[in-house]
Amino acid sequence: MASRNDPVNEASDRDVQIDGIDTRDGVMAEDAAPENDVTRAIQDRKQSREEEREKFRISQFDVVTSLFMALILFNVVTSLFMALILFIGVFVAMLFIIWLTSRFSFAPVAIAPIIENPAGRGDNAEGFERDFEPPGAEEVEELMEPTLQDTIEAVTDAVSSVAGALTTSDTAATATTSGTGMGDSRPPGPEGEGEDIIPRSERWQLNFTAKNQPSYAKQLEFFKIELGAVGGKIVGLDIVNNLAGSPKARRLEDASTEKRLYFMFKRPSPLMQYERSIHNQAGVDLQGRNMFKLIPEQLENLLAKIELDYATSKGHPSITEVAKTVFESKPGGAGYEFEVIAQRYRK
């Protein structure tokens, strides 16, 4: 039995203890390793969170930039709002002006009349020459009728000298009472000397386009054109107005007092039936009578200006060069307006 103080046994015991200690330290090291991994993972996670927070952290530059962007956006929105308010204000003001002006009637702008003085032959026959000038003072005595005594003596002398010379002769010549004069070369119209101009009544042609009577009457009423009827067994001139509403007629006993320009149909047209219907509505008798349109003076001046402006634009500044002008009524402006659709010039 070994002694407690045996060196060998003590050494063995120490070895066992050392081995035990070493063995226990190894176990503790193995248990501490997972704890270090967890700690390291927690630290890594904290670090990643800090890095993510750094990414989302707002810098001073971002703060200043955001402030300026907010100010710019505020100014833009404010400007748009003010522009909208201004637009609405202007729109309302325009509506008010339109309403206000519709309450008043303004007279149309007066057009300076274009006066024409065409030459006319009056009641003289149409021809190629002109009548002789009236005699002068020294020629009047020769043209004066002789006294009764001078006439008796002249007749007695003439009868006694030619009585024996009267014979009957057979001839193929046709008896005629027409003279050999050349007539009057001036155009139709009141007799007088004037410019070499074709009168408006012969130079102008007014065209209207309408699908029905109300449309035609509306155009005539817009231009203040009146319808007339003359001739037949009725003395005087019947004039019809208020064409687009309830036509009314009035009679002018002396037709020569009517000085307005007028136009008549030169060929059959559906518009003639519309005018005839308007006359019938007004109670005008058309049997054996001629229908025509009376043009107001203001419209005549307007047509003259339109014609001259058109001719000038085509290189014909003088109305004496115009032979024919065709106008046509077309929708425009506040209702209708006349336009030149064709124009011919004199050679």
TrEMBL record:
Region (Disordered): 170-197
Bias (Low complexity) ranges: 170-185
Membrane spanning stretches: 56-74
Record key words, sorted: Membrane, Transmembrane, Transmembrane helix
Protein name per the record: Transmembrane protein
Organism: Rubripirellula obstinata
